[in-house]
Specification:
The protein is mainly β. It is built from 2 helices and 6 strands. It has one domain. It has helices at residues 9-15, 96-104, and strands at residues 20-28, 31-39, 45-53, 58-65, 73-81, 84-88. It has a 6-stranded antiparallel sheet, with helices on one face. Strand 5 and strand 6 form a beta hairpin.
Length: 111
């Protein structure tokens, strides 16, 4: 049986009282890879994978629900100046879990 749960972006700040299950940040010659998982109060695991080319100031992200049978999936581009996100594409608003993963890894998100 397929179960669908709709989550509003505004609800994420209330349900993401994360216990970080897995945090991987590795730096290799101009590339930063960030992979984080956040557990929500409702038992949903929010997954974020980010890769940043620090020499080009460009990166990408993927966001999905790990333990849900819904079709929640987003991906997009990220543009940086120094350690600040200055633009993104792929979605109307950057998911809060993506912002949190960036902030936890030392990047600034002004939105």
């Amino acid at each position: 049986m397929k179960q669908t749960i709709n989550i509003k972006e505004s609800d994420l700040q209330n349900i993401i009282k994360e216990s970080v299950r897995r945090i991987i940040s590795e730096k290799t010659e101009g590339t930063v890879k960030i992979s984080k998982r956040y557990n929500t109060k409702k038992g949903i695991v929010l997954c974020v994978d980010i890769e940043i080319d620090t020499t080009e100031g460009y990166g990408s992200f993927e966001y999905w629900h790990e333990n849900m049978e819904d079709d929640t999936y987003m991906e997009g581009g990220l543009w940086f100046e120094n350690n600040e996100v200055v633009d993104f594409d792929g979605c109307f608003d950057l998911p809060k879990a993506v912002k949190k993963a960036l902030n936890d890894s030392g990047y600034t998100t002004p939105w």
